[in-house]
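Lab manual, section 2.4: Encoding a predicted structure.

Procedure: take the sequence of the chain (85 residues), apply the prediction step described in section 2.3, and record the output as structure tokens. A sample record is shown.
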Amino acid sequence: MSQRLQVLLEESELKEIRAVARQQHLTVAEWVRQSLRVARRAHPGGDPKAKLDVVRAAARHAFPAGEVDQMLAEIEAGYLGGSPR
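Recorded output:
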């Protein structure tokens, strides 16, 4: 469900936003939605300590890896539906 958000702006600021939105062929509302999405991605939520703990736990594991050329051949074969060279 959509909800309305009211934001009060100075007239000069709103005028600038309208101009930018017009240049991008967007409504002011769509320009604001896109700008808020960009801002949210720039500041991801979550606990940084928890994220670091997950990365550190993963880094403690040692997994075997094949030769790069062999892995690339297998990947390519998977895309092409054949068997690796």
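Check your result against the sample. The first helix runs from residue 11 to 23.
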